[in-house]
């Protein structure tokens, strides 16, 4: 038996990196998964990689009409949700003196506003006893230069989790934040050159970058009944980077 047998999961931003690895693992553990992505070609490749028990829905999690279309699809095809992994996000470096309105609005628009409305629009379909978790970031507690807007957009998710678990406690829906550290993903490779990646890696106690599959196993923990007594936490999955 799989840890998610018979469960319906939705993963936003599920076309690459840790979210794609999680979608693949969820299916292997018995779930039917809906994934989203902004680019149809990338979405189609992700669906092909996962191979079975998956529906890809093209859309932007910052766009409320796209979110409505996502959950209309879920309702039509499966009728309910057991697990929501709100993972769609974006990042752009900018020092305090260089931050623009566009930078702020784009980052908060997807990471914070998009996450909020993803959860809100999923709730009417949610089965009692389900699990909601969001992708945070250890940047929210590290104070790394250039990443203030990104860090703040992710710090808000910790506050959301505290409030929402209280609002949803009568339905026994758990709300948590999964905060990765340095992980070898396509997004990391776009944001950082080889020298910056080497510096990031040097901050990890084991001296080796994380892999998406290592994050996926923690996502599975939060999605499954193994974490039935875990609620309102920010779980750092970073090899100890944020602890030292």
What report would you give on this structure?
The model has no long low-confidence stretch (mean pLDDT 95). A 7-stranded parallel sheet has the order 3-2-1-4-5-6-7, with helices on both faces. The chain has helices spanning 17-28, 40-50, 64-77, 101-122, 139-142, 148-167, 186-191, 194-202, 212-223; strands at 8-12, 32-37, 54-58, 81-86, 126-135, 174-180, 234-237. The chain has 244 residues and is an alpha/beta fold. Helix 1 (17-28) crosses helix 9. It is globular and about 45 Å long. The chain has one domain (8-182, 211-235): 3-Layer(aba) Sandwich (Rossmann fold). Helix content is 45%, strand content 18%. The longest helix is centred in the middle third of the chain and has 22 residues, at 101-122. The chain has 9 helices and 7 strands; from the N terminus they run E-H-E-H-E-H-E-H-E-H-H-E-H-H-H-E.
Give me the CATH superfamily.
NAD(P)-binding Rossmann-like Domain
User: What's the CATH architecture?
Assistant: 3-Layer(aba) Sandwich
Structural class: alpha/beta
Low-confidence parts lasting 5 or more residues at pLDDT below 50? none
* CATH top level assignment: Alpha Beta
- Average pLDDT works out at 95
Give me the count of strands.
7
Assembly status: single chain
